[in-house]
Structure formats: C-alpha cells, structure tokens
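Standup notes, protein team

Yesterday: finished cleaning the Litorihabitans aurantiacus set.
Today: Type II secretion system protein F structure.
Blockers: none.

Input for Type II secretion system protein F:
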Amino acid sequence: MGAVVGLMLGVGLLLAWSSTWSHTPSDAAPGRVRTAWGDLAARAGMHAVSLPAFVGVCTGLAAVTAIVSLGTGTAVSVAVAFAAIVATAPLAYVRSRARRRGVELAQLWPDVVDDLTSAVRAGLTLPEAMIAMAERGPAPLRADMAVFAAEYRASGRFLESLAVWQEHLADPVADRLAATLRVATEVGGTDLGRMLRTLSDFLRTDQRTRGELEARQSWTVNGARLAVAAPWLVLALMSGRGTSAHAFDTAAGIGLLAGGAVISAVAYAAMLRIGRLPQDPRVLRVAR
C-alpha cells in the first residue's frame, strides 16, 4: 500500500512540474508531422489522402490482422507483433511509391527544362511557357503542370502560382526550377536561357551519376529486406503450431519478440542508411 501511495505521489509531482514546461516544441511537432506527410503524399502523387485518413487505414489493418490472427489460434503476443508489422505496410508502400515516382520524374526534368528554354527562345513569356507544358510537356508531368496553369488562370499572379505548383510537387528539382524562374522574374536580365541550360546539364549529370550508384548499391537494400523478413517468416510458420506459438505468451517469449523487433528495426534502418543514397532536401521550398 505504501508503494502505491508513493507512486501516486511521484506521478502527481511529475505532472505538477510538467505544467511549467515550455510547450512550444510539442506544439510544433504536429505541424512538422503534417508537413512531412504532406511532402511524402505529394511525392507519391496521393494528394487526396490526409494524415488522419492514413493513420486510420494503418490502425484498421492492424486491428484486422490481430483479429484474424487471434481467430486462428495464434498466441496473443505473436498476433500483436504481426499487427504492428502490418500497420507499417501502408507507410512502406507510400514511401516506395514516392521513391519510384521520384526516379521517374528525375529522368524527365532535364527535358522539361529544355522545353522551357525552347519556349522562351521562341518568344513566350514564362507563364505562357509553363502553361504550354501542360499540353506539350512530358506526359507523366502534364497533370502537375496543369496545376500551375489552373492557378495562374484563376489568380493571374505568376509567383503565387509558382509557389502552389512547388507545394503540389514537393520535389527538390521543382524547387530549383521555380527558384530560377522566380529570380528571372524579379531581377530580369538576358541570362535566363543560359541559366536554364546550366540547370539542364547539371540535372542530367546528377541523374546519370545517381543512377549508376543506385544500381551498384541496390543489392545492399534488397539484402537488408531479406535479412529482416526471414525471422518473421519463420515466426509466421511457427504460429500455426499451437504449442510453439503459445510459448511466446510467456515472459521469456514476449521478451524475445520485443528484442527481435528492436534488433530488426535498428539493423534495417542501419542497412538502409549505409546502402541508400541520401535524398536531396527541399532547401528552396516556399516558406509557410
């Protein structure tokens, strides 16, 4: 009884002390999470999926997995472990889709810059050149360029339309291109064609170098995935055997699962960090 009273007193003192803390970081954290999700969803082409809806999908998949696992006689601890793994599957899918789309767009951006250069040389203004890309640009990017066209027709303001287009794509290369066009609009001059050609050459060189490095290091990422998945596949096979599965409901079994999950997560993250090239940060994004 004394231990319970002491624990309650300690919790009360901790809560009283926490009321004096500054809440600025915690208030800013949800905004950072929403911003990160917005960028990820935009890169994946899933603009209509909100963060609450995505969290709901992850939670629903985890609940269904747990219910099905328990219904088949799987141990509670194993069912919880499988539910946690399945809950991360949507995030892995969105990241994979964003990565594939990023690779696809990286191959198209040099052509986009070349088309803009040709349009400017032909006498079109920058807004007209951008709008023309919605009809004559690379097919995978026409819908994204149409966002700029629609915004510009509605507002008539080039810089604001450019900012909307940047946030729609959430792509570092789009940020570079938008920054180049913004500087050309605000400062003026006759060097826009030279700037666009320099940007196009840089993008081609970067894309070629990155492609070679990713081709060489892809085996590292695939090996990491196989190494992490193997023990959990064995666990899935063992979960169908009653005596083996229910052994994980003991304290030692739960500890083994928890330790295995932590080791798998840390090892997978380390292998990805070692074997995957870093993504370009959006240093030229529009300030909100």
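Follow-up from PR in the comments: The longest helix spans residues 192-238.
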